[in-house]
Structures are given as C-alpha cells and as structure tokens.
Amino acid sequence: MKTAVIGLGVIGHVHLEVLSEMDTNVVAVCDVDETKFAEFPYAKGYADYKKMIDEERPDVVHICTPHYLHAEMVVYALDRGVNVLCEKPLCISRDEMEMIAAAEKRSTAQLGVVLQNRYNAANVYAKEQLGDDKATAAYATMVWHRSAQYYAQAAWRGTWDQEGGGVLINQALHTLDLLQWFCGMPNEAVASVSNLTLQNEIEVEDTASALYTGNANFTFFATNGSKVDFVPEVMLYTKDGSIRIAGDYVWHNNELKYFDSSKRVYGKGCYGTGHGRLFAHFYDCVEKGEKFPINGEEGSKVIRLILAAYESNGKKVNV
Ligand SMILES: NC(=O)c1ccc[n+]([C@@H]2O[C@H](COP(=O)([O-])OP(=O)(O)OC[C@H]3O[C@@H](n4cnc5c(N)ncnc54)[C@H](O)[C@@H]3O)[C@@H](O)[C@H]2O)c1
Predict the structure, then answer these.
(1) Which end of the chain is more exposed for a tag (fewer CB within 10 A), N or C?
(2) 185 - beta bridge partners?
(3) Domain boundaries, the chain
(4) Within 10 Å of residue 45's Cβ, how many Cβ atoms?
(5) pTM for this one?
(6) Which of 175, 152, 153, 156 is nearest to 165 (CA)?
(7) Which CATH class is domain 117-273+293-318?
(8) Mutate which of 62, 65, 92, 150 to test ligand 1's pocket (most atoms within 8 Å of Cβ)?
C-alpha cells in the first residue's frame, strides 16, 4: 500500500521506523521544515500537506503533527477518500470532534487513532480477563517528569491554543483512555487542574486529579511534576476481585499472573510496545475492508473526559 507521513518530529520518526518493517511503500513525507526530507531519500518531500495528498493520493496518511493541526488534516484526507492514522490526541475541542465525526460519516475511507497502549500485551491480558464485563470501579496514576527544557523543544508545547492542554491531553491521555476502555464511559466528572512546578514556563496544567462517576466510576491522578518517571498504574475492581496493572506486570486477585517480556519498544520506553501491533491491525483492516476499532468515535471518548476535566474547575460537569 502507498503510505505518506505528515510531521517528521519525534513521533514521525517512530512511525517511519515501524513502517520500514512493514509491507508498505512510503511514497511521500511532509514537514514545514524541509531540511528533514534528507533523512528519507526514498520518499518525495512536501512542505504542503494538501499538495502531498492531492498529488500522491496515498492509501494511508499518518498524521504526526502538533495537536492543533490534527482535525483539519484528518478532515482534508477523509474528504479525499484517503485513510488516516492520526496520532493522539485526535483533536483538542468539541467543535473539532464534531467536524471529524461529520467527515468520517461522509468519507469512503476510515480513520484510526493511535491509542497504542491498548495494544500493550499487559493491557490486552487484563482486558481478556474482564471479557465482556466492565470493571466496577478503578483508579489510575501517571506520575512523570517533564522539564522546562522538554517544553522548550517546540513552540506548540505548553500552550492552550496549540497543545490544547498539558499533562492530561498529552502524557496522561493513554492511561485515562485505558480507564474508560476497562470501565466504560462515565457521564459526570469533577476535576481540578493546576500548574504546580512550571508556572513561568507553560500556560497549561502539569498536574490533574479527576473523579469520573455515573455510568462508570474511576479516579485519576496525573502529574508531570515528579522528579522521575514512574510506571503508570491501573487498579480495577471486578465482579470477582481485582486486577492491578503496573507497566508490563498484571496481578489478578493479588497474584502475579502476567509479565510481558517482548520489549519491542519503538521510540521512548514510555510509548510502550503497541505502535507496531496497532499499525499492523489498522493496515490489515484497511486491506480487508474491515472496521478498525479505534475510530473517530472511540478516539473521542478520552477527549470528552479531558475536556470535561478542563471545564470542571472543581464543579460537577457532564462528560
Ligand atoms: N502515541 C504516543 O505515544 C506519542 C508519543 C509522542 C508524540 N505523540 C504525538 O505525536 C504528535 C507530534 O508530537 P512530536 O513529539 O513528534 O512533536 P514534534 O514537535 O517533535 O514534531 C512535530 C513535527 O510536525 C511538523 N509540522 C508542524 N506544522 C506542520 C504542518 N503544518 N505541516 C507539516 N508538518 C508540520 C514540525 O515541523 C515537526 O517536525 C503529537 O500529537 C503528540 O502528542 C504521540
């Protein structure tokens, strides 16, 4: 299949590494910084993503750009019948969610969202233990370190208009998505977000706590203000006991039941092992004309949880 990648930054490189191990033909790459094309001599370089999509007509385009560009790029590709694999977060506002849902509905192509932690073997194992059930209650923590230097790497980071938020919409999104994957969607939220460590460096929150209730029940704490990165932890109460996941380990009713030793990580360790499996599944679905499960609606669920947390400011809001 003919493939193209938009955005040749940190994660764009990971996508191209995974694609190089798959049976795909990367025909074009796109970035506003044209100096990056030299690294990919096998693909034609474009500074304008619209021109690239119109001229190359790839089967799949990968979107690896800053958050505020995702929605317009997804819609442009879907409207031209090009399948899209979009990095998280799918988008950063309710208006964008609606635009994407409408484009997906009228398109002949399909949209996949890169929520690759759902493909980490330990999370897959935990999901299998639940079967068709949902966890009855849960909590999760994501405690990481992101420095002022990290945010200074690119102008879009740490801004409300371009990143769309801080720790919740960027680093913690994956763990919050797992909570709703295991528990189902709640319909109420109360949350507080704050900037505890980088007040002079970023506009957005580095710390968040949120309680989600109603149709599902879970509690979440996330911070980028730790001295070090800890492994994210998820604790689920089920109808017959508990499941605890810490990174690659899973305990079922307090007994260690599973350890993922596969260790094929693309990019940073914290990205997990899921990118390769998610890409393979998406391309398989496109090839066979089957529905990829993490579509626009599914990728929007965690965005709705995050936007509710931002809107809450200590008051109960609808998700
Ligand atoms: N799934 C994961 O675990 C994971 C990990 C890291 C990053 N990401 C996501 O990937 C996306 C990119 O993050 P990053 O860390 O690679 O950022 P980055 O800043 O390193 O790279 C972004 C790239 O996009 C390019 N770009 C900007 N505007 C463009 C435009 N209009 N057209 C074409 N190219 C443009 C920039 O020049 C840059 O090369 C974000 O959405 C981020 O949240 C996901």
Answers:
(1) N
(2) none
(3) 2-114, 117-273+293-318
(4) 18
(5) 0.97
(6) 156
(7) alpha beta
(8) 65
Q: Which protein residue has the closest C-alpha to ligand 1 atom 3?
A: 271
Ligand 1, CB cutoff 6 Å, lining residues: 6-12, 30-33, 49, 64-67, 69, 87-88, 114, 116, 154, 170, 271
> Which residue's C-alpha comes closest to atom 15 of ligand 1?
10
Share of the chain above pLDDT 90, in %: 95
Distance 72 CA to ligand 1 centre (A): 14
The pair of three-digit structure tokens given for residue 114, joined into one six-digit string: 């890169």
Decide: 192 and 313 in contact? Cβ < 8 Å.
Answer: yes
Measure 156 CA to ligand 1 centroid, in angstroms: 9
Give me ligand 1 centre to Cα 251, in Å: 35
| Homologous superfamily in CATH for domain 2-114 | NAD(P)-binding Rossmann-like Domain (3.40.50.720)
Among candidates 70, 52, 57, 53, which has minimal Cα distance to 11?
70
CA 12 – ligand 1 centroid, Å: 7
Q: How far apart are the first and last CA of the chain?
A: 38
Q: How far is the CA of 171 from the centre of ligand 1 (A)?
A: 13
